[in-house]
Amino acid sequence: MNTKQYQELNKAQLTIGTVQLNSKVILAPMAGITDSVLRQIVRMFSSDCLLTSEMVSSEALLMNHDKSIINHNKIEYPLSFQLSGHKPELMAKAAKALEEISTIIDINMGCPAPKIVRNNDGVKLMTDLKLASQIISSIKNSVSIPVTVKFRLGWDSGTKNFIEFAKMAEESGADALCIHGRTKSQMYSGIADWHALGEAKNSVKIPVIANGDITSPEKAKSCLEISKCDGIAIGRGILGDPGLIYRIEEYIQNDNLLPEPTIQERLELALIHCKKEAELKGEIHGIKFMRKFFGHYIKGIRNATKYRFDLVRVTSIAEIEDLFSTIIENLDNSC
Ligand SMILES: Cc1cc2nc3c(=O)[nH]c(=O)nc-3n(C[C@H](O)[C@H](O)[C@H](O)COP(=O)(O)O)c2cc1C
């Protein structure tokens, strides 16, 4: 391989401020989901994607003693920590506190959860551009790492202000934007509008990351083609399939369409996930925490409803192992 070919091969896929990433794909932040354990499992497959933490409340980070939400492992880098809040000074302090452990700081201006919106955080900030701008510039001025902003298309279909918001974020100092192609009032219903994300991309010079409904390598390619965005962020698609980001990277970078994981492979991952959560939280709490994931890991198999019923009642790793063995045996018997 000559130098030119080598440079071409190692060219950054996505540049955010001073950070060069060798992947266009980002793990989207998901509260209660993208903890250190899940991020490490995604990293087992993809060595290059940017991983994002769950949202970290700026206020809680600065006031609470429990800092377990920022637990992380060095294999997770490049790693972005996402901050929520609505007080510029406090958020700037929180960003400063996270700077040493973050590759990038992401600001949550898109979460539509009632508890968050009631607190004037998340997508509520899309209704107050002046305050949103103050938050972005305060954080930007307090850290020397890149700052990104994640938001939606707007509050509802009548107030889609994402273009104005994107321009404001760029002027306020954001190094990249990640936009979920839905409004607040849509929550997670309907279809993410990738064409609108293309309009946002055309309205600013900084990189724009497309987000929403990218659940397969083919959809990833299609979203990049439609939106012409610089990168893509994957959320729910990794539930039960943490290797999805790697398969997307292989497809969009090397045109290599890898097979989806078999049920055996999914269950192996579910067990790794379970054991790591149990190590972190203790067996009882770790297994309880895993309840929200089991349904995704066994999605599509025969008798999934019955197994899900059993899985939310187990209390030990040993029981889970037994149940998984039964699932595999019954799969073999049904062949
Ligand atoms: C359970 C769950 C938790 C989420 N938590 C966050 C969060 O903490 N911060 C955030 O910006 N977005 C959050 N999101 C939104 C996702 O990052 C993403 O924007 C959304 O799910 C659309 O992408 P997808 O279709 O790939 O899932 C969450 C979504 C889900 C389903």
What does this entry look like structurally?
With 335 residues, this protein is α/β, with parallel strands linked by helices. It has two domains: 3-254, Aldolase class I (TIM Barrel); 263-333, Non-ribosomal Peptide Synthetase Peptidyl Carrier Protein, Chain A. Helix content is 46%, strand content 14%. The protein is built from 14 helices and ten strands. It has helices at residues 3-9, 36-45, 58-63, 88-99, 114-118, 129-142, 162-171, 194-203, 217-227, 244-254, 263-281, 283-297, 304-311, 317-333; strands spanning 14-16, 19-21, 25-27, 51-57, 79-84, 104-109, 147-151, 176-180, 208-211, 231-234. Helix 11 runs antiparallel to helix 12 (283-297) and helix 11 (263-281) packs antiparallel against helix 14. The longest helix is centred in the C-terminal third of the chain and has 19 residues, at 263-281. The chain is globular, with a radius of gyration of 20 Å. 44% of the residues are buried. The model has no long low-confidence stretch (mean pLDDT 95). The structure holds flavin mononucleotide (FMN).
